[in-house]
Write a structure and sequence with these properties.
Length: 201
Amino acid sequence: MIPAIDFVAPSRFASLPPRSSERFARPRVSPTPRGEQVRIEDGRELVLRAIEPGDVAAMQRCFARLSPEDIRRRFLHAMSELPAPMAQRLCRINPVLETAFVLMDESVQPAEMRGVGRIYVDRATDSAEFSVLVERNWTHLGLGALLMQHLVDDCRRRGLSELWGYVLMENRPMLKLCRELGFSLRLIPDEPGIELITLSL
């Protein structure tokens, strides 16, 4: 059983700065027993909650809707499908070392996964690697920033010192998001085309 997640940031930490393009278009969030109700500008609603073992089918359907470009940007290499064992592994996390949040669209049945953000904790470096993915039809609405804020809050709750990730240089939307949220970016000499982005916590 996955423990309940506290979605409230510790008060001693400042929130990430709002993205300049979203200062007047940030999703409205309100707590519910299932997680958080997220309402975006056009009236659509999602539920942001911790990932669950039963999300495997929704994750596979989400993957099937991704373009080859989206897949390469998220996984840093091409993949034609998300095998069931891999989807099961991604949905059955070890809460000691991982956190994953999903954005679920419950206006359709079965509910569809529109976004996911996760961290993997590296105890040796007191840091966590992150990944964030939002389905293309739901991008540019502040959802990526919302997921990132929750990941940062979770890292701070764990007492970690740094959040980091690898991003393809061609993934300009993600690089722009991270830059606006205060991450530092640097090239990796041995990995052409990839940037390492870090945020001190």
